[in-house]
Write the structure tokens for this entry.
Amino acid sequence: MEINLIIRELLAKHNFVSLPGIGSFTQKYEPAFPSADGRSFIPPKQIVSFDTSRTFNDEAIENYLCEKEGISHPEASDILKIFIDRLNYDLDSGKPRVFENVGELFKNKKGRIRFEQAADIDSALSTFGLKPLEVEKITPKKSKKINEPKGPSKNDTNTTKKSTSKLFVISSLVIVVAALTATFILIPDFRFWENFIPANKSVSENSAELNRKLVETKLADSVIAKKDSLIEEVDQSIKENNNKKTALNYQEPKKQDNKTYYLIVGSFGKVENAQKMLERFKQKGFTPDIIQGNSMYRVSIGKTTDKNQALFNFNKFKAENPNESVWLLEI
């Protein structure tokens, strides 16, 4: 098995992975923090570095080879020694060595070993897929025009003023009509129609009462009609404002990428070993598959083209199977 392909898997379970005589890969957690300009939040992530002072052998690689390849510890030590010799030769020759989804080791002009972390988002498994959260900067001018509902635009202000004027006029008219109605009803001296008394008293009294009810009915109908008209104008104004807010808040739907994300539980140099792991996960109720690439045989227990679903599946499997190695492969 290519050792540079298993460093990522080992870092998923260990904070340190040593390359005897050269140094150790280390990782630490960095929490979320605000950016320097205060306009966004940087998401939490795992920082991978290379410590040249940790040159001792922690045997993490040998133990991994023994478990995955089914070989003895001395055989695993020989494989690691061959890899270290080749790595030293490449670094001394000025040739950088790439560790998949981890980073690149190289020597600078002074002969010192340097490490550059991979830019791939796979390099931080616990926060895979998170992006900086932008914080919108609010200014008085912009908030009045677009962002703040309390700060209407010039056109909206004019419309509001017109609506307020109409409302005031209609309200005043309603109050005047109601006052006149009350005056005619409550003060007998203003009932001018009662001054005309016919010869027949009983008939005149009935006519006066009929006229009074007729006037009261017409006045009441007029007040109700004015109220209904006022309610319709207010409802229309509310609908227009809601339509404007909907248009301002409209956003184009985000486009999805066309990549496929595989949930990988193991990488092997021999297809027989990959087949053994495939059978083991079949017994657990999964539907595993073998993906071949770069002379390696990877065992996948699921795939999806939805990045958010891939992150959910990864975190769920990791929580339910803390002793199993797992990572995401993006193709």
In short: Residues 18 and 59 are 8 Å apart (CA to CA). The radius of gyration is 40 Å.
